[in-house]
Amino acid sequence: MPPPPEMIPPPASSAPILSVRNLRVEFATRRGVLTAIDDVSFDIARGEVLGVVGESGAGKSVTGSAVIGLIDPPGRIAGGEIRLGGERIDDLPPERMRQMRGRRIGMIFQDPLTSLNPLYRVGRQIEETIRTHTDLSARAARQRAIDLLAEVGIPAPERRIDGYPHEFSGGMRQRVVIALALAAEPELIIADEPTTALDVSVQAQIIALLKRLGRDHGTAVMLITHDMGVIAEAADRVAVMYAGRVAEIGPVDAVVGDPLHPYAKGLMGAIPTLAHSAERLAQIPGSMPRLSAIPPGCAFNPRCPKVFSRCTVERPEPLPVGSHRVACHLYDESGQAAA
Amino acid sequence: MATTAPTTPATLPEAAPRPASRLARFLDSDLYASFRRSKLAMAAFVATVLFFAVAVLAPWISPQNPYDPAQLELMNASLPPIWAADGQAPFWLGTDDQGRDVLSAVFYGMRLSLFIGVLGVVVSGTLGIGLGLIAGYVGGFVDTIIMRVADVQLTFPAILIALVVDGVAKAVAGAHMDVDAQLALIIVAIGLSFWVQYARTVRGSVMVEKNKDYVQAGRLIGLSAPVILTRHILPNVTGPVFVIATINLALAIITEATLSFLGTGLPETMPSLGTLIRTGNRFLFSGEWWIVAFPGLALAGLVLAINLLGDWLRDALNPKLQ
Amino acid sequence: MTPPFPRQDDYVRVQNLRRLFDVSRPWLNRMIERQPRQILRAVDGVSFEVAKGETFAVVGESGSGKSTVARMVVGLLPPSDGEVAIAGVSMTDPRAAAARRQLRRRIQMIFQDPYASMNPRWRVDRIIAEPIRAFDLIRGEREIQARVGELLTLVGLHPDDGRKYPHAFSGGQRQRIAIARALASNAEFLVADEPTSALDVSVQAQILNLMRDLQDRFGLTYLFISHNLAVVRHMASRIGVMYLGRLVEIGGGRELFATPKHPYTRMLLDAVPDMSHTGRQRIPVQGEIPNPIDPPSGCTFHPRCPFANARCVAEVPPFKDGVACHAVHEGRLVPGMQAVA
């Protein structure tokens, strides 16, 4: 057994719907075992949107795949546990996990076409999901599908329900996928880059929709994206990932407005915003290390402007600092900034 | 990999590690790893190398030169292989009716078959790659013409094309073609029968590559189409060509053997494996089976080894199958 | 003869640029299925000027035709109509061919996908040296290698990096190499087509900073194509906004973001998810970009525009005073962000 997980104060009053503790994911390659996710812990409460943000290679998508049990060989969950509504789900047999997806965990991916079967009418796909997971009659399932399409903002849903996926525009397709993800009233939705393939004017619509639905249905949402703008607008809390670890996690205002981890600070400074035009963007030298060459100690140490001797030998653990948790030696255990 | 250390060039230029040599890079590649995993591929590779070695070294490793009449003794005619009761050293696989050592004949036949096969592949490959590059890059009317000709040719079996080419050329040149001319003719006939597959594959790859930005960058500095084609596009479309070439080598050898077996290929004075099978065929009924059986086995083994190698190469280079 | 420029310092002048693409099915299919030819108007009458040393950005969503404009300006794609002139030399007039050859090396491009913009089988030093050799700028292998090393240092890489192949580099490093290649021919005008949209944000900042540093150092002129308004705001001195093949608004950077005129510009500014908008509530925009093969009549934005009237449906708005919008021209709509929805 891993050491008892440190308790993270739940953000809302209720117990978390999703609880990930000390998750570790490894990939076996012919050059050795690579650790893609290393000791990651977080919670998502009912109705909460947790943004998981990071650059490519940070491990954000692998984390999402681990939660829905879609880590394919040669990858495997090598440690830690994942609990959904208190029940452990990381060690379920594949058949049970398959039932869990769709019923208790909904999924939205970057490309809506990967979630929709091009040969079936969209209504049939939604009705099928409803009838697999509930005992509604065919007629009731169809009515519920129409209601869902209306709820995700598809005009004339009673007509569009009989359309094929290719008859919908990109934004409308992603709405259908969201309706599909909601069909079985899941407790958790994993949305992996749900707006990345869409035009900017449509992104905002989808973000607003996700946020509203999470709130209305009490569904927890894990929103995985590389786009800080999307996180800032949609998430309640945000976890910043770097090289397979959570560097910083906290309420979105605090992390975006006052990041503590040097990587998070650099990241926020590096993003140009509409609000003002800086003469120069802050820049973090170098790039994310490859999995095969993660530096010892703190993985960020070769790029960190505040690196000191401890960073190159000892891996920082996430510790509470104010409303954040930060994995950085600059913040000692009392939560005060050191030197 | 030594070259992938996360460098921080923006602020700290640091000396790059020496780039690995081509051999080191190959030994580190996925292709080589796949090769090491496949026992069948390794066996096929060893067998193919062996066949090529025999072909190249035939004049030095054969017990006799089967086409030097001075070395033939009628006394040794129609000897069975050495393990049979009447077998005699040094004729391991027996002799034919003129006292010619079968093993030496197979070695020399292998040499000729592989020579024709390799040159046939070179001719068809050059023709196919050239036409494919032009069709894919120029497009439009030129593309339509080349590809329609290819389509029409594909509706005929390759052996028929080779027979027609061979027949027409012989009719034009008359009966008195010398041996070298016949050799050249059969190579051209094989080349003309197999160019289509190269052209189609290369054309497809070119149409993908020509829209990539590195080709656009070449156009921006005013490079001409032939320069872009040969310097930039050609090196990037050769992967699938190697697969086709390997499989076509086996096909070319078979085609030559078939032509020779039918009697339109090489003359008996210059016997390839196919000619040996044809001439040996008539001794089958007189019980001298070894005259035809060993050339036949050699042909089958050669083609099988090359085909297995080609199959593995195709799977290893096809990312979809991995 | 080329008419004199309207402004003395205009370096690039694009006039009434148009590009049609025939996207019809093959002839036989059309005859059998009785379908008409389908023509896509990717770029429909675009005009703008870029002054020497400035950054002009073209911003738009996918299908707006911004990349087609970029490719026509550098000469990779012939325009169907209209004219491009750079440094006083027409890029379209056949009589200017000789002058154009002289100009060729001074115009270079930086592409979006750093993984496709370099020949994967060439070493980096050969890639960077190619323009030098093609234009015969430097003689002697040693001198060329020295120049390549200098260029690599200029973009923040080490001269020894030239001995490696592109696959050994990250996306950001490859984009640096692409910039080095563009500068190898002493280019003075760079067209950058979404140069950072394939990169991570921390790397994007490095490349944007590098581009600005090089501009300050060599007085480069940039045509910067992007879908990212925040990036454009950071980079550009003047910005053109494209929608369905037409420029709907051109303005100075500050002015465009403070007091947008065209309803589409306002909509974009309001819609883009941005870091400075934490927890913001807003009325989401309605609708999506129509199919460019069959664009709406009149002002192509009218189906999504809250200010559209009968004239907008019928009549294409002319480009006047930096904007193509009937509502603004008629004074129904005053510049600024307040009036949306």
Automatic annotation (TrEMBL), chain B:
Keywords: Cell membrane, Membrane, Transmembrane, Transmembrane helix, Transport
The protein's name in its UniProt record: ABC transporter permease
Localization annotation: Cell membrane
Record keyword Membrane present: yes
Database matches in PROSITE patterns: ABC_TM1
Organism field: Methylobacterium oryzihabitans
Transmembrane portions of the chain: 40-61, 114-142, 154-173, 179-196, 240-262, 283-309
BP terms from Gene Ontology: transmembrane transport
GO cellular component term, pick one: plasma membrane
Membrane topology: Multi-pass membrane protein
Keyword Amino-acid biosynthesis on entry: no
Signal sequence range: none
Domain ABC transmembrane type-1: 110-310
Family recorded in the similarity comment: Belongs to the binding-protein-dependent transport system permease family.
Pfam families linked to this entry: BPD_transp_1 (PF00528), OppC_N (PF12911)
UniProtKB/TrEMBL annotation, chain C:
Statement: the UniProt record of this protein carries the keyword rRNA-binding: no
CDD domains named in the record: ABC_NikE_OppD_transporters (cd03257)
Annotated keywords: ATP-binding, Nucleotide-binding, Transport
Coiled-coil stretches noted in the UniProt entry, renumbered to this chain: none
Membrane topology type: Peripheral membrane protein
ABC transporter domain boundaries: 12-269
Subcellular location: Cell inner membrane
GO biological process: peptide transport; transmembrane transport
Any one annotated GO CC term: plasma membrane
UniProt key word Nucleotide-binding: yes
Family matches, as Pfam families: ABC_tran, oligo_HPY
A Gene Ontology molecular function term of the record: ATP binding
Family statement: Belongs to the ABC transporter superfamily.
UniProt cross-references to PANTHER family, sorted A to Z: D,D-DIPEPTIDE TRANSPORT ATP-BINDING PROTEIN DDPF-RELATED, TRANSPORT ATP-BINDING PROTEIN
Identification of the protein by name: ATP-binding cassette domain-containing protein
Gene source species: Methylobacterium oryzihabitans
